[in-house]
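COMPLEX REQUEST
Ligand: farnesyl diphosphate
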Amino acid sequence: MLRIHELTSEERAVYATLKPECLPEHVAIIMDGNGRWAGHRSLKRFQGHQQGAKSVQLVTETASRIGLPWLTLYAFSLENSLRRPRAEVNFLMRLLKTYLESNVQRMMDNNVRIRYIGRTRELPPEVQDKMAWAAEVTSRNTGTTLTLALNYGGRSELVDAFRSLAAEVEIKHTNPARITEEDIHRHLYTAHMPDPDLLIRTSGEMRLSNYLLWQVAYTEIFVTERLWPDFRGIHLLEAIANFQRRERRYGGLGEGSGEVDEESERIKIAAV
Ligand code: FPP
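STATUS: Structure written out below.
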């Protein structure tokens, strides 16, 4: 259900410029820049993460008001857990628990369902318990599905998918030569959702950082200099407006590229 009247007046103004029939179904976000946001204010990194958690909730609520079906946020990568100081990783785990405890009611109020992707079984048990609780409490909501990628890596997702596909091939005695793209899709963490139409990355870096590698094959990418703790619903709407100005071709020809006349193409080739 659309709740446009709950948007701020600035958000409504941007929303009014959007084509409702071309809204993305799935937006994925690489939330980056918490540390720099804190650094610019002479704050500690953890304060940047705290502010980043507020952005998560505000952006999710705008997504739910415009009826976005799928929002997938890169909250914690496998590399984060391997390469960041233990104290920061522990802080991020505590922050996730607190975030879930304090925001499940707001998710209920906004009809948001929360889910997770990643190697979540490697997270601390008390965090997993809180995650399972939030997923269960919100499981019957029918609005935006907020998916948090936690202890996630795109390559490890592919490894997990290939392992489970290989097991299926063995059990069902199927021919590996008959494996299709759909079979791989069925074994991804994201099997139940469409591929992202739009990938947003904050803080200006032009990298995928091992995020949803299979799924972003034809995704439009929008990079903003804005740091994640400063990112709000209005910026999501601006990214969607930018997305709607693009022409998606999926490897085909764009509009206005002209008819291909086979005969004249043959003549041109012959003349080369
Ligand atoms: C990058 O900032 C961000 C992360 C490590 C992941 C995102 C985490 C949050 C938004 C906080 C909590 C999330 C939830 C769901 C409660 P960075 O530290 O890499 O920034 P930098 O590149 O400026 O150092």
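REMARKS: Residues 59 and 232 are 5 Å apart (CA to CA). The first strand starts at residue 26 and ends at 30.
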